[in-house]
């Protein structure tokens, strides 16, 4: 079972998400939080595999709560629930360490796929959200930091790993596709992070989108 902490200030949203992420699909909601201030305590108490985080909450919002969760020792990944009105904080949530974004009006099938992918260490971007993430990225990150030479430093195999990461593949899935060991894939991913000067998969994928190495939703 994938153990989930669910954070959203609206009870009806929590109930809907908990129903979708149910035992029948391999999930167990182990804690529900109405405010971002409750999330760290819930993570410490329940040791979840995933936090599903709303952005807009009273008190401590999703961006700050994501940052606090990701600062914990051995933190769980965070999947952010967002709406189109959250454009101004999407890049901030990514910088805080979110592993992906999904719209609240997404299908149950896509929410389950996103939750599984992020819980397994992959990154997930709802195609409808990705253009807004890119817009925020381009407005927030200095052009020098997006130097194309960093991408040119990647080997052909590293570029293929990056493309598969952008499709939401986990290290295990990439290893199976390339017929190599999972440890080899982890080495490639580490090299990608170093060469692109990013700290996680989500940031690497956004940079790749920005430079046209991969196409959002493709």
Number of helical segments with 4 or more residues: 11
Say how many strands there are: 6
Class by alpha and beta content: alpha/beta
| Multimeric state | single chain
The residue ranges in which pLDDT falls below 50 over 5 or more consecutive positions are none
Strand content: 5-15%
Shape: globular
Mean pLDDT: 89
Q: What sequence of helices (H) and strands (E) makes up the elements?
A: EHEHEHEHEHEHHHHHH
Task: Give me the Rg, rounded.
Answer: 17 Å
Biggest sheet details: 6 strands, parallel
Q: What portion of residues is helical?
A: 40-55%
Terminal-residue CA separation: 29 Å
Enumerate the strands of the largest sheet in spatial order, edge to edge or round the barrel. Answer: 2-1-3-4-5-6
Short description:
The protein has 218 residues and is of the alpha/beta class. The chain has helices at 11-20, 39-46, 62-70, 87-96, 108-119, 130-140, 149-152, 156-166, 171-178, 182-196, 201-210; strands spanning 2-7, 27-33, 50-54, 78-82, 100-103, 124-125.
Give the key terms:
globular; six-stranded parallel beta sheet; alpha/beta; single chain; 218 residues
Write the layout of secondary structure elements.
Elements (H helix, E strand, L loop, with lengths): L1 E6 L3 H10 L6 E7 L5 H8 L3 E5 L7 H9 L7 E5 L4 H10 L3 E4 L4 H12 L4 E2 L4 H11 L8 H4 L3 H11 L4 H8 L3 H15 L4 H10 L8
Parallel strand pairs: 1-2, 1-3, 3-4, 4-5, 5-6
Helix pairs in contact: 3-4, 4-6, 8-10, 8-11, 9-10
């Amino acid at each position: 079972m994938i153990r989930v902490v669910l954070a959203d200030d609206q009870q009806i949203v929590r109930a809907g998400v908990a129903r979708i992420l149910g035992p029948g699909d391999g999930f167990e909601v182990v804690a529900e939080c109405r405010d971002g201030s409750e999330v760290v305590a819930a993570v410490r108490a329940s040791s979840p595999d995933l936090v599903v985080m709303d952005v807009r909450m009273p008190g401590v919002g999703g961006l700050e709560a994501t940052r606090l969760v990701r600062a914990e020792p051995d933190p769980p990944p965070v999947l952010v629930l967002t709406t189109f009105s959250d454009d101004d904080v999407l890049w901030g949530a990514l910088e805080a360490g979110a592993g992906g974004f999904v719209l609240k009006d997404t299908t149950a099938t896509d929410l389950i796929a996103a939750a599984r992918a992020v819980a397994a260490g992959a990154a997930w971007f709802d195609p409808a959200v990705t253009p807004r993430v890119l817009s925020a990225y381009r407005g927030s990150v200095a052009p020098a930091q997006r130097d194309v030479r960093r991408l040119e430093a990647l080997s052909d195999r590293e570029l293929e790993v990056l493309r598969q990461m952008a499709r939401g593949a986990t290290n295990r899935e990439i290893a199976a596709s390339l017929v190599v060991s999972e440890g080899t894939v982890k080495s490639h991913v580490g090299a990608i992070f170093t060469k692109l000067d990013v700290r996680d998969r989500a940031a690497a994928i956004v940079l790749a989108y920005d430079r046209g190495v991969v196409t959002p939703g493709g």
